[in-house]
Amino acid sequence: MAQGQIRKALSGYYYVFQDGELIQCRGRGVFRNRGESPLVGDIVDYTKEGESDGYIMKIHPRKNELIRPPIANIDQALLVFSVKEPDFNTILLDRFLVVLESFQVKPIICLTKMDLLTEATQQQLQNYVTQYKEIGYEIIETYKDDQTLLDRLKPILEGKTSVLAGQSGVGKSTLLNTLLPNLNLQTGVISQSLGRGKHTTRHVELIEVCGGLLADTPGFSSFDFDTIEKEELTSCFPEFARISEDCKFRGCLHMKEPKCAVKSALETGEIQSYRYEHYQQFLQEILDRKPRY
């Protein structure tokens, strides 16, 4: 029995990486019987059948797992957001941040198209950058033909398993071109090589980049809160989580409860009003969700 990591899943096969080679494996029936499914990113035990085929025998415990895309043991997510065309969108960013916080995946915000800002919009954006940094988020700002980007990204990606996420049109493909210069592919071809082409089976694959692993993630452009309970939402807003320890009531939802430390912090400007509005909106979505049985 050998141990390796699933780097790709496609058409019922799992490609397990060990010692520089990929072994094409199938999952044992026992996983189906238990309702388990091996995921890209899983550390697994497998047995070889022949030179390059095998069977997955055991899935090691996961640090975390995402549902869409199905991928496990993620360290961080590069959230690619443009500041213009399309405009910077705090509510969409907060949706991403909340879901990643709920899965214990570290978000890194990567802002693209910074050179498209005017003087007036530059100031507004810098306010947002300052506020998100104060919450504790790491932010990378990128410009067109940014020669330093690869040098700045290398230490962030090294030794980590990362996912790349963001809406279409925000500059993800440009970022991929920077990270994978040896491919030097056009946008559409890059998408296809990572299983994103219109005519290819959608799959998730971890590729080696800058001494780490990176997945470009189909279906990762928007989020819902299916797996988050109302009591957990506070912990997905780091600045709320810190302050809520001073709320009078345990399990305070920061809506109508008296002596709520979060609402006090909102009044003093310690919490940004747009963050609180997004919290209220997300909480309502969770409350309106149909019960699961």
TrEMBL record:
Predominant location category: cytoplasm
> In this protein, which residues make up the domain named EngC GTPase?
72-221
Cite the cofactor comment.
Binds 1 zinc ion per subunit.
**MF (Gene Ontology):** GTP binding; GTPase activity; metal ion binding; rRNA binding
Q: Which cofactor does it need?
A: Zn(2+)
Q: Which PROSITE patterns match?
A: ENGC_GTPASE, G_CP
Q: Which InterPro entries match?
A: G_CP_dom, NA-bd_OB-fold, P-loop_NTPase, Ribosome_biogen_GTPase_RsgA, RsgA_GTPase_dom, RsgA_N
Residue sites binding Zn(2+) per the record:
C247, C252, H254, C260
**Alphabetized Pfam families for the sequence:** RsgA_GTPase (PF03193), RsgA_N (PF16745)
Q: What is its EC number?
A: 3.6.1.-
Query: What EC class is this?
Result: hydrolase
Enumerate the subcellular locations listed in this protein's record, separating them with semicolons.
Cytoplasm
Q: How does it assemble?
A: Monomer. Associates with 30S ribosomal subunit, binds 16S rRNA.
PANTHER family recorded for this chain? Answer: SMALL RIBOSOMAL SUBUNIT BIOGENESIS GTPASE RSGA, SMALL RIBOSOMAL SUBUNIT BIOGENESIS GTPASE RSGA 1, MITOCHONDRIAL-RELATED
Question: So what family is this one in?
Answer: Belongs to the TRAFAC class YlqF/YawG GTPase family. RsgA subfamily.
**What is the protein name given in its UniProt record?**
Small ribosomal subunit biogenesis GTPase RsgA
